[in-house]
Structure formats: structure tokens, C-alpha cells
From TrEMBL:
Keywords: Membrane, Transmembrane, Transmembrane helix. This is Agenet domain-containing protein, putative isoform 4. Residues 66-131, 133-192, 229-296, 299-355, 389-457, 460-516 form the Agenet domain. The chain crosses the membrane at residues 24-47. InterPro entries: Agenet-like_dom (IPR008395), Agenet_dom_plant (IPR014002). It comes from the Eukaryota. PANTHER family: AGENET DOMAIN-CONTAINING PROTEIN, AGENET DOMAIN-CONTAINING PROTEIN-RELATED. The keyword Membrane applies.
Length: 535
């Protein structure tokens, strides 16, 4: 029989007929059951959240696969939640389906831009530019702050096109900062292959805001000379000239002062007057641009690629019309209808200053530069035909890699097909796909391909500082003998990776170069590494 007694301060439950031990056991079982049910509830909740998060990542990966290609400008989400501009250096391949190799534009290690593999779920296209967009308090925006785009909310409107933007303090006090209008954009999410909200449509609320602002009339009195100036004194820039013989060229300069009517006085840093003084001239704002950002050097340029060539103290826009040995290149200049030869070190990747942003030149730009010379187009077409004939289908070749950490290596492959535009589909003989079930296939430019070198016997020991190819990681790596051991063993130094490794005699071959359609034994001795004593 159960009895319940309730006092003013305490409640007691007395179970008649049960001992103290039985009561304690009953309570223990009850509390254990409740704890187990709570544990199952928490586990199911956590599992559901993880499942949703994984499904979202997979959805983003499926949307971007096939849309990203080499050279595309994108934004990458970092652990701090901000998005940073980057350029795709290597698009998703068979071996790395869900990652892309990118180079950041503003994140540096020392003097070089950071390069890394990023997951597709942290990648999105670069959103289109929306110049002169106005904002009101409460708008969700992305602010360019500390070199990245961070999500925030407009708190207040200031003078001189500035806004107060609040940022999430990660659980701490909210941060606020003054941001200029040019460093703000409306916050959007990349979802299901499109931007939300879309760029093509304005919501009703946005239209109402625009109408409201149009009804506001403001009269501002200020000094016209200072307001018109977009560039400041001592800004480093590049200036182009419209005179005959100088079109298509850019010269380094410094802003001396703003004159009037969108004109500046500039001082060229590489040009001199007859008496040796720095050359000064007036230049329109449309003929001035900021100095382009320094890009990481590339191993080689390709046929029809747009470049800037250093010539006569300036950078001249041209197109690669021939890939020569050396490495050297023939460059065609459409403005002067000339073709000149340049070393690799005198060329840089061409970039265009469009809508306040730097953009790497496209294939359309190269086509426009080439349309002025039918003779040159015919000459380049003949060269392309020769390149195609050089690597017929089924030919055994070696393919060079320019991927970070693999410079200076050649991998055996077979030509599968010619893709046109100086590209081939190759199948590697030693490299396999990620699942190890098939041989890896990739697209490669002709400048990265050479015939398989002839077999060269080396019945005598290699000598100190002799150049060799070493078989390592399923490929041939260019190196140099820096130490000779007894028993036909050697230490080889690799300049591209700054490493030294030990090899047997049978894992080495004499180094040869493919020059002008012929195999040439390279210079046996290049003293770029201090030799070590033989043992």
C-alpha cells in the first residue's frame, strides 16, 4: 500500500512493504533509464546535424565539379569564416576529385603567394562586381577587411561614402569598423549553382529603398580639384602612351600631383630626358593604372598566350607566336606588326585592369591581338601542324610536371589523342588513378611533352658534378652527382626541391635535352652545388 506525505518544506514518498535496499535499487534503475534515454536523444541530434553538414558539402562539390578550370578566379573560405580571392592552378583530376590547387592573391608567406589544396566545399566562384551600390542600416553585407571578405551588418551611415559595419565577435563583444563603400558588397550565398539573392533581380524592398534615396536631395560644397583626384601623390602606377610607336606599352611611373580635368603629372621611373633627369609628362586618368600584382613565376609559356615583354624600358603587350629552345620565345606585337625573340625572364603574365580589378588575359584577348596579321596566323598554323605530326597517336613520350613539388620531373606516357590548340590527351605508364584500378589520363600542352629519350648505356661510374636523371617516385628527376661512394652508389642533389638523396648506379641515366627536334647530351658539369669528398 502506497502512502504520500507532504510537509511545508519537504515531500516524502514512502513505499510500504519495501526495504531501504529495494527502494534505493528502484530509484537507481529509474535514474539510469532516464540518463540512457537522454544519451540516445543527444546522440541522434548530433548524428542528424553531421549528416546535414556532410550532405551540404557533397551538394556544393557536385555543383562545382565540371565548372572549375585552370586559371579561374574564385573565393576560398578559410577557417576564420572569411573568403579570400584566389586563382585555380590545377582543377579537379581523377586522383583528387574533391580538391583544387589554388594560389591566393593576398595571402603571402614571405614574398610569395600561398599555394594549397582546398576542398571544393570551401570554394565558390568570384561574385560579379556591383559598383556604386548604396546600403542602409540593417543590410547584410560582405566587407573587405584584413584582406578577406567578412560577413557583417550595416550599423550606421557616415560621411564620405563610409559605413559602420558590425562583425560577429565569435561569442565575444561584437566588433565594429568604418568601411568605405567601395569595400562593401551585398551578402550572398552560393547555393545550387546560383547566387542567392540573384544579381539579375531586385527585391521589392530593395526597389523601395532605391526610390527612397532618389527622393533625397543633398547639396554639398567642396573643392573640385581634391574631389576629382582618384590617385594620390607618390602612388606607384603604370602609364601608357598613345603616340605612334608606343601603343600597347606600359611604363612604370609615380604620381607627382593632380592637375585638373582628370589629368595628372607623372614621373616615369625608367625613362630619362636628354640631360639625364627623370622624364615627366601629363597623362589622362584613362591612361593610368595601378602596378599589377606580382604573380608566381611559371615554368613556361604556351603558343598564343598573351604576355607582357620587357623592351625599351617598358612592358609591351604581345602574343607568344613561337616556343623556341633556351627557353626562348618569339613574341608578336600587333600594334607594330613585329615579331621579336625574348628570354623567359623578360616575359610576365599579361593582366588587364577592368572595373577596378586585375584579370588574367583570356584566349579572346589573344585572338584580338592576332587578327591584324594574316601572315603570322598562317605561320603559327604551320607550326601547330608540325607539333601535331611530332606526337602521333600511340607514340611513347615523357611528360613534364609543373605542379608544386614536382618541378624538374618527367613521367613516361603514351599519346592517346590530339585535342587541338596545342594540347594532347596522354596516358601515364606508371601513374594510376586514385582507386588504383586504371592508368591515369591527363591533358598536356605540347611544350610539356617530348619523345621518349634513346637508351644510353653508362658502363663506367658517374663523375662528381655530372648531370643525371634519377628514377624516383615513378618518374625521372633532373639532378647532379655531388658525392661518389664505393660500390657504384651516389648522392644526387635536386635543385628544384633543394634535396639530396642516395641512389644506386642502375637508378640513374645520363641527362639529355630535347632541342630543335634532336636529343642532345647536356653539359655534363654545372657547378651549382659545392661537391663533397668521395669516400
Amino acid at each position: 500500500m502506497k502512502q504520500l506525505r507532504v510537509s511545508r518544506h519537504r515531500a516524502y514518498v514512502v513505499i510500504a512493504g519495501l526495504s531501504d535496499t529495494d527502494s534505493a535499487l528502484t530509484l537507481s534503475i529509474t535514474f539510469f533509464s532516464l540518463g540512457y534515454i537522454y544519451f540516445l536523444f543527444c546522440f541522434q541530434l548530433k548524428f542528424s546535424r553531421e549528416t546535414i553538414r556532410k550532405e551540404k558539402k557533397m551538394k556544393i562539390r557536385r555543383q562545382l565539379q565540371g565548372q572549375i578550370s585552370k586559371g579561374d578566379r574564385v573565393e576560398v573560405k578559410r577557417p576564420n569564416g572569411a573568403y579570400y580571392a584566389a586563382t585555380v592552378l590545377r582543377f579537379p583530376s581523377v586522383t583528387r576529385k574533391n580538391t583544387v590547387f589554388v594560389e591566393y592573391e593576398v595571402i603571402n608567406e614571405g614574398t610569395k603567394h600561398v599555394k594549397e589544396y582546398v576542398d571544393l566545399s570551401n570554394l565558390r566562384p568570384l561574385p560579379p562586381c556591383e559598383p556604386n551600390r548604396c546600403f542602409v542600416p540593417g543590410d547584410s553585407v560582405d566587407a573587405h577587411w584584413e584582406n578577406g571578405w567578412r560577413k557583417g551588418v550595416v550599423k550606421d551611415i557616415l560621411e564620405n561614402s563610409k559605413y559602420v559595419v558590425g562583425f560577429d565577435g565569435n561569442g565575444e563583444k561584437e566588433e565594429e569598423s568604418e568601411i568605405e563603400q567601395c569595400n562593401l558588397r551585398l551578402h550572398r550565398e552560393w547555393d545550387d549553382g546560383s547566387w542567392v539573392p540573384p544579381f539579375t533581380e531586385l527585391t521589392q524592398s530593395s526597389k523601395e529603398k532605391d526610390d527612397k534615396f532618389r527622393r533625397v536631395k543633398v547639396k554639398i560644397v567642396f573643392g573640385k580639384r581634391a574631389a576629382d583626384a582618384k590617385l594620390r601623390k607618390d602612388d606607384e602606377v603604370e602609364v601608357t602612351r598613345e603616340e605612334e610607336g608606343f601603343r600597347g606599352s606600359w611604363f612604370s611611373a609615380v604620381i607627382v600631383e593632380y592637375i585638373r580635368n582628370d589629368k595628372y603629372l607623372v614621373e616615369c621611373t625608367t625613362l630619362r630626358t636628354e640631360d639625364g633627369m627623370p622624364f615627366r609628362e601629363e597623362a589622362n586618368a584613362c591612361h593610368i593604372r595601378p602596378c599589377p600584382p606580382e604573380l608566381s613565376p611559371i615554368a613556361s609559356f604556351h603558343l598564343r598566350e598573351v604576355v607582357d615583354a620587357w623592351y625599351n624600358d617598358g612592358w609591351w603587350v604581345g602574343v607568344i607566336s613561337g616556343v623556341l629552345a633556351g627557353p626562348k620565345y618569339a613574341v608578336y606585337f600587333s600594334q607594330t606588326n613585329e615579331e621579336l625573340e625574348f628570354d623567359h625572364s623578360y616575359l610576365r603574365i599579361h593582366q588587364d585592369w577592368i572595373n577596378g580589378k586585375w584579370t588574367i588575359a583570356s584566349e579572346e584577348t589573344s585572338r584580338q591581338l592576332l587578327t591584324n596579321s594574316n601572315k603570322l596566323l598562317h605561320k603559327m598554323a604551320v607550326k601547330e601542324k608540325r607539333l601535331k605530326a611530332k606526337f602521333p597517336k600511340g607514340m611513347k613520350v615523357e611528360v613534364k610536371s609543373d605542379e608544386y613539388g614536382f618541378e624538374g620531373s618527367w613521367f613516361s606516357a603514351v599519346i592517346v589523342d590530339s585535342l587541338g590548340n596545342d594540347k594532347y590527351l596522354v596516358e601515364y605508364l606508371m601513374l594510376k588513378t586514385e582507386d588504383q584500378e586504371a592508368l591515369l589520363r591527363e591533358e598536356a600542352y605540347a611544350s610539356y611533352i617530348r619523345p621518349h629519350p634513346p637508351h644510353a648505356e653508362h658502363a663506367y661510374p658517374y663523375q662528381l658534378l655530372e648531370n643525371v636523371d634519377a628514377w624516383y617516385n615513378d618518374g625521372w628527376w633532373i639532378g647532379q652527382i655531388v658525392k661518389v661512394f664505393t660500390g657504384w652508389r651516389y648522392t644526387v642533389y635536386f635543385r628544384t626541391t633543394n634535396e639530396e638523396l642516395e641512389f644506386e648506379h642502375g637508378d640513374l641515366r645520363p641527362h639529355q635535352e630535347w632541342i630543335n627536334g634532336k636529343w642532345v647530351i647536356a653539359s655534363r658539369f654545372l657547378p651549382f652545388k659545392q661537391p663533397m669528398a668521395s669516400t
